[in-house]
Amino acid sequence: MITIDFNRLNLSPLDRILDIGCGEGRHTIRAGQYTETRCVGADFGFENLIETQKKIDFHRALNDLNCRSMDLSCMDVTALPFGDNRLDCVICSEVLEHIPDDNQAVYELIRILKPGKILAVSVPRFLPEKICWLLSDEYVNTDMGHVRIYRKKNLIQQIESFGVTFISSHYAHSVHTPYWWLKCLVGPNRTDSFGVNLYHQVLVWDLMKQPGITRLIDRLFNPVLGKSLVLYFKKK
After folding, report:
1. pLDDT at residue 143 above 90?
2. Which residue of 55, 72, 177, 190 pairs with 227 in a disulfide if CB–CB is 3.0 to 4.6 A?
3. Which residues, 6 or more positions from 159, have their beta carbon under 8 angstroms from its beta carbon?
4. What is the per-residue DSSP string for 125-167?
């Protein structure tokens, strides 16, 4: 499930790309499909990196990775182990909403980025996320869960204050929004809800098959119901 639009990243051969908070590696692997890129997938959780490595091995077996290198590492987004102005692209997807000191995290993301290069950030969109919070205290109080809800204008101003220029935005994953509302309504950790399980099967089918009808529905409803807000910045 790719949230970031890679066509907006201006990637070139030999670019060094960091996917911080990579989870199970969706954007790390996508970056590795670009020719001669040098990719790092990083996450605070070691178990996530184990799952990422399994997916990398799977894609290597398919021979669809074109990168020069792909490395994985445990990292803290508030204290990144890179020098200033070292990376050609930084991806931070669905991470900042988990970080208590998000200002320090944003400072680090921009510090390591080369001037003129792109930072891509995604967070849960305000309205879909707000409804999840209203529907479920359990969702709000999940360990290592979301600690805040962002408004687009405020987040842009916050990130720009660290020395980057906002260049574009879009929304993503509208077909996932009702799923999370339903999940919060019945209980986020329930596994016996017929409706939730059926919807999940539809989402898996959509991800695996990518049928035209759901792609069209997603594009049409993203401006209204897109679950993720995606922002792109260029370092001054």
Report:
1. no
2. 177
3. 106, 110, 119, 121, 166, 231, 233
4. -HHHHHHHHHH-HHHHT-TT-------HHHHHHHHHTTTEEEE
